[in-house]
Structure formats: C-alpha cells, structure tokens
Backbone:
C-alpha cells in the first residue's frame, strides 16, 4: 500500500511538471491576458453565402442558395440541416472570454494550429475576403478548452470548445434526411410548412408484402375509422402517433438511384386536397429499402427499424 501511494504521488508530480514545462515552453507570461470578443461579427451573418470546414480527412462545403443552405456536391446540391448551420454561425458569433496564450509561429505549430494538424472553419461572403478564417487546434492540458487562432495571424488564444462538434463531424451528418423536412428559413425560425398530423384527413397503406392486404384510415369527426370496416374499434392515439412517426421519419442515408420497382406505399391525403406519397422499393441484403417521396428528387435509404414503424399491420391499431 505504501509503495502504491508513493507511485501515485510521483506519477501526479510528473504530470504536473510536464504540464508546467509545456506551458513555459510555448507561452510568454507577459501575454497572459484575456479579451472578450466573438470570432465572427454577428452583423456579417446575413452576408454569409459559403461555409468550408476542413479537418484532416473530412471536408464539408456548404452554400447558401435559394434562401437555404445546401451541401455542395459534384453530383447534386443536397439539402442540409438548416438548424445545424444556424447553430454553427451562432457559436462563432457568440462573444466569449479568450485568454491570449502566445504570439509566435513556433507556438502555433506546437499547439496544433499549423499545417494539416489544424482544423479550419471558413465563412465566406461574396467575392471579397472571407468573413472568418478560423484555425482550431489541440485541446489544452486539461482538455476543456481549445487553442484557436485566425489564419494568417500569430496570436493564439484558448477558449471553450464550441467547435469540434462541427470540425469532427462526418460530412454526411449535415444531410437533411427527414422525408418531410420543416420549412426552415435564414431567420432561424422553423415552421412545419403546414404538414402535421392534424392536416391529414385520410391515410392509405399498401403493405410491402404479398400476404398483407392494403388498408386505410379516415377521419370521421373526432375519431378515426377504417373504410370498409367501420365497426372495427381503432385506438385513436395509436393512429395519431403513427401519423407523427410518418411525418417525422428520418432516413439512414441518401440513395444514389431510384428503386427498381415499388413494393409498398403510404399515401397521406391532406385537408387542402394535396397528397403526400411515400414509395418503398424491394429490400436489400441489409433489409433496407430505397424510398421515393412525392415532391422530392432525392432517393432515401430507410433502415429496417424505421420501415417497421411506418408499415404497421392494421391489427396494431385495433383496441
């Protein structure tokens, strides 16, 4: 026990000495001052029309087109999560306290702010200089703060880790994979676009299996009935929950080509006379299906779990 205590004490001392040595190696004590500022001027956010996030093997390019952010892709401009972009811009434009840690090229290299070791967030606005070119380096000795610097400047600051959530993200994590995404605008307000469970007047389900018969629900006053089998006692709460699941369904990924044929479908008839159609193709070897949705040119890949939630057998809704 005595030996173990001595070992732990010596190990702790070595860690502390290592941290002190590292700090004295790169930091100038005269520069240990703090400033409160935001990396991105909030007034410049309406000018932003491009975002590049370059981190090691991952590179994400976003563009602002047609009053929304899209994922820049050689094949197609893909929809992205508008709220996630707004969160990134908010994090960059939120004022924080940043101690000045160093001001030399040597320090930037040691702190992961030089070359390919640094992650980089670029906010573009028009054809002029970037609104922001931020380098994101290593975490500090305690792991709670990051070393940060503007590209082209020597000053190195440390601050709260608000940015690795975005720099470490896989580019696909920016994709908007909801089958019926909300109408999100640049102002940051989010609207359902009128698509919600209360707008649906009738639903028709063609089950993707040869031994399952199609069925439908229809609103009748404040309850749901099954046309052709009006005497069936339906659990209204289950029907409502199912409708929300359909309207909030999220794909596992985007597909590259449309399904070869349609094996199952869900049709939602809205109060304004419009129909929302989901068409599911055959299962692949992972038990996933390629899906097309009315009003969209995209092809989605739905997991088995999501498919099972959407294509419920009619017995599930009976009391």
Residues:
């Amino acid at each position: 026990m005595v030996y173990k205590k001595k070992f732990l004490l010596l190990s702790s001392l070595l860690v502390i000495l290592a941290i002190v040595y590292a700090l004295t190696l790169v930091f100038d004590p005269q520069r240990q001052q703090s400033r409160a500022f935001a990396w991105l001027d909030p007034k410049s956010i309406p000018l932003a029309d491009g975002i590049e996030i370059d981190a090691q093997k991952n590179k994400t390019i976003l563009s602002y087109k047609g009053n929304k952010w899209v994922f820049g892709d050689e094949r197609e401009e893909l929809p992205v999560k508008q709220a996630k972009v707004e969160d990134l811009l908010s994090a960059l434009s939120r004022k924080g306290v940043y101690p000045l840690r160093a001001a030399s090229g040597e320090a930037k290299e040691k702190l992961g702010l030089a070359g390919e070791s640094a992650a980089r967030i670029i906010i573009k606005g028009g054809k002029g200089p970037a609104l922001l070119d931020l380098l994101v380096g290593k975490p500090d000795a305690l792991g709670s703060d990051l070393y940060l610097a503007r590209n082209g400047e020597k000053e190195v600051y440390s601050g709260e880790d608000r940015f690795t959530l975005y720099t470490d993200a896989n580019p696909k994590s920016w994709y908007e994979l909801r089958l019926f995404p909300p109408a999100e605008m640049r102002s940051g307000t989010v609207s359902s676009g009128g698509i919600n469970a209360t707008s649906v007047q009738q639903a028709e389900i063609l089950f993707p299996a040869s031994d399952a018969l199609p069925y439908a629900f229809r609103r009748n006053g404040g309850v749901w009935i099954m046309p052709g089998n009006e005497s069936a006692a339906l659990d209204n709460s289950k029907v409502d929950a199912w409708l929300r699941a359909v309207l909030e369904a999220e794909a596992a990924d985007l597909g590259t080509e449309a399904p070869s044929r349609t094996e199952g479908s869900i049709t939602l008839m809205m109060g304004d006379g419009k129909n929302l159609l989901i068409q599911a193709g055959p299962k692949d070897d992972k038990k996933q299906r390629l899906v097309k949705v009315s009003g969209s040119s995209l092809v989605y890949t739905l997991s088995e779990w999501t498919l099972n939630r959407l294509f419920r057998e009619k017995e599930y809704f009976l009391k």
